[in-house]
Design goal:
Blueprint lengths: L1 H6 L2 E2 H7 L8 H13 L3 E6 L2 E6 L3 H17 L2 H11 L4 H17 L1
Helix pairs in contact: 2-3, 4-5
């Protein structure tokens, strides 16, 4: 998705050429991933001769929100449980805590 977001679109070969993977990926691997992303509604394709050109359907912010929501549902059950887990298991700076307090205060005002 990063390649498609930065380039705007690409064929499997173009995406493969722009990937910076620790290990080289096979053409079929990239093709399969793009097909899966299309099945999930993240990209679409048009035909260019024998190649497919893939276009992102969601922007990075939408995809990020969707991924976070999926993790929250799958592993924590609620956003509050995720936040509690992070606060208990990670070092959080004073600046980050202050920001969290402001966000909590804003959320309380909405209710």
């Amino acid at each position: 998705m990063e390649v498609l977001w930065s380039a705007g679109n690409g064929t499997v070969s173009e995406v493969l050429a722009l990937l910076h993977a620790p290990k080289p990926l096979a053409f079929n691997t990239v093709q399969t991933m793009l097909r899966i992303l299309e099945q999930k509604g993240y990209v679409r394709h048009t035909e260019e001769g024998r190649a497919f050109r893939y276009f992102p359907l969601v922007d990075k912010a939408q995809a990020s929100r969707s991924a976070v929501q999926s993790v929250v549902r799958r592993f924590f059950g609620s956003p509050g449980a995720l936040a509690l887990n992070l606060l208990q298991s990670e070092d959080v700076s004073a600046e980050e805590l202050a920001h969290l307090r402001r966000l909590i205060a804003q959320a309380e005002k909405k209710k």
